[in-house]
Amino acid sequence: MTARRAGGFAYIAAIIFLVVLAGFALAVLRLSETEQVTVNQSFLGTRASLAARTGLEWAFYKLKAKDATCDTVKTVPDFKHDTGFTVNVGCSTPPQPYDEGLGPDGKTVKKVIFELTATACNGSTCPGSDADLANPDYVERKRTASICVASDGTDCY
Known about the structure:
Shape: rod-shaped
Order of helices and strands: HHEEEHE
Largest sheet: 4 strands, antiparallel
Number of helices: 3
């Protein structure tokens, strides 16, 4: 009797094992890449939202001046250097004025409600152009708020 060599099965099992292991490693790498992109987008979105809020806060400050109008917030400072985002602030035209009644001095208290919209994006213009929208790292956030200001620049109560 001659001894027959049993071979071949171990090679096939090893190749299948290596293919499965390579597929698993590829899936882990793909998930890691997706997670990094998601974290980056979340981080940029938060920064854009805060830049838009900065624009609103700046507009609130400017509108507190006596007899302020929407023209007061037309020229927005360059926030791109500080935040990395372009910020545009829009104001409702015309604002909604109303008389609150008489003040302690007997004069009519006039109040104005301004509707503000701040848009922040990391593109060249805000809102973004078609070229900006094609960029996978492009982020844009819009915030709206209203503020009531008395004609003398004090808060509405």
